[in-house]
């Protein structure tokens, strides 16, 4: 990362060691999902182009992947580009696409060393060829890894995902492979991009907005949600640890009663 941005990144005040000590390793979430919001505002606050906010956000992503590996989290899903983000100026879209290529090119060796299994969720075929190629390459190179499953949500939308699942199920019914009466919650779960993975236990959204923006609509049914005002480029492992401390204080009832 260029030094200018490193110097601008807000110093994190939280004490990592204290936070680590207060975390119960037996009660960590299996799956963490993150809406990495606030790159643009981070840049605007500093009089910089939005692209530099995204570049700074890449550094946060690296730090968060590392801490997830250290904590042996099973699945991390990050919202890199939504089906609605095509509404942004073409220049910004191009920048985000190139950044994804740069990120995977630079990081894939280290990700593999850490045992990370790269996966993508979203409609890949609509992305530029360079992005499709680097994703295919990263998925292939990391497919035998058994550590963190790292889902990059690119051209991802929850409604499109559910629509795709319904279409595939309807086709199976039409072909006589399945009866309509056999379609249940598990059938739908099995047709999502995240088939075979646990639902997120914890959703984090940075930058202050309290909405889920078409992210993992089905999978978030019982996730704990943690919102923070911290902008994504300022978000570091200490913030994630704070979210985990808070998560562990919550009682999850899944519609049942207090134990
Ligand atoms: C939201 O901030 C962020 C994005 C749309 C892109 C996320 C991308 C990164 C964190 C870069 C690294 C990611 C990959 C996949 C390499 P915003 O632009 O909506 O911010 P704003 O709400 O302040 O305008």
CATH topology name of the domain at 28-157 and 199-249? Undecaprenyl pyrophosphate synthetase
Question: Would you tell me the overall average pLDDT?
Answer: 95
Q: Using only CA atoms, what is the Rg?
A: 19 Å
Basic shape: globular
Organism: Desulfoscipio gibsoniae DSM 7213
Subunit structure: Homodimer.
Function: Catalyzes the condensation of isopentenyl diphosphate (IPP) with allylic pyrophosphates generating different type of terpenoids.
InterPro entries: UPP_synth-like, UPP_synth-like_CS, UPP_synth-like_sf
Properties at a glance:
magnesium ion binding, alpha/beta, ditrans,polycis-undecaprenyl-diphosphate synthase [(2E,6E)-farnesyl-diphosphate specific] activity, metal-binding, UPP_synth-like, 6-stranded parallel beta sheet, Undecaprenyl pyrophosphate synthetase
Structure at a glance:
The chain is an alpha/beta fold and 259 residues long. Helices cover 44% and strands 13% of the residues. The protein binds farnesyl diphosphate.
């Amino acid at each position: 990362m260029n030094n200018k941005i490193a110097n601008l990144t807000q110093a994190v005040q939280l004490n990592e060691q204290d936070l680590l000590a207060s975390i119960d390793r037996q009660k960590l979430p299996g799956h963490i999902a993150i809406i990495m919001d606030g790159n643009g505002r981070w840049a605007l606050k500093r009089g910089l182009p939005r692209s530099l906010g995204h570049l700074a956000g890449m550094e946060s992503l690296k730090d968060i992947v590392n801490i997830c590996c250290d904590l042996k989290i099973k699945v991390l899903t990050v919202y890199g580009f939504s089906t609605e983000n095509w509404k942004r100026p073409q220049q910004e879209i191009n920048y985000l696409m190139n950044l994804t290529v740069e990120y995977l090119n630079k990081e894939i060796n280290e990700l593999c060393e850490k045992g990370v299994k790269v996966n993508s969720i979203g409609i890949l075929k609509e992305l530029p060829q360079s992005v499709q190629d680097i994703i295919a390459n990263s998925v292939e190179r990391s497919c035998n890894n058994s550590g963190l499953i790292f889902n990059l949500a690119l051209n991802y939308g929850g409604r499109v995902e559910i629509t795709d699942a319904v279409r595939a199920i309807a086709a199976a019914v039409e072909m006589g492979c399945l009866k309509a009466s056999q379609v249940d919650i598990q059938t739908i779960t099995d047709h999502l991009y995240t088939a075979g993975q646990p639902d997120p236990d914890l959703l984090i959204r940075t930058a202050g907005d309290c909405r889920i923006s078409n992210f993992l609509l089905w999978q978030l049914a019982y996730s704990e949600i943690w919102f923070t005002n911290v902008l994504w480029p300022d978000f570091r492992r200490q913030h994630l640890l704070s979210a985990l401390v808070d998560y562990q204080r919550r009682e999850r009832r899944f519609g049942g009663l207090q134990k």
